[in-house]
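Review form for a predicted model. The reviewer records the input and the model, then writes brief findings.
Reviewer: anonymous (R2)
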Amino acid sequence: MQSNYPRKKHQSLVKPFQLTVKTEIVALENILIWFETIAKPYLAPKVLWECKLALSEGFTNTVLYAHENLPATVPIIINVNFYPTWVDILVWNQGPFFDLKAKLRELQQQNVHPLDLESDRGLFFMDKLTDELDYIRVDHQRNCLKMKKRLINQG
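Model under review:
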């Protein structure tokens, strides 16, 4: 079966990073420090800021919703992979599946400004700040929030 999508040119992974934290919202500060440290050599300031905000929202949603009924000892794994023209940020959780695409469609149909929402505005932010956003069920126990951001010319 042939895909309707153009084939992406293969790009080699420049540098992979991984961080494992407990399901605790207080871990966010350390995650952002870690991310800024690893990402600064690869990302322009605007892209760095956008990625930090998207990562903040993704991690917060993982703690508050995906791991809502799980003990704090359940790990959240964050992978950051740098390629020549993009960065992938992957947030792994062990919660129930969530249909991100359907939720985003539902929110867009409500025709409400994201800042007027009490909840779900983080989904809007992640969607607007990344070039690709997906949430997939990997196996019976794990999900992955996938955020891809193209790199702007830094120079």
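Findings: The chain has a mean pLDDT of 86.
Further findings: Helices lie at 27-39, 45-66, 100-109, 121-129.
Recommendation: see findings above.
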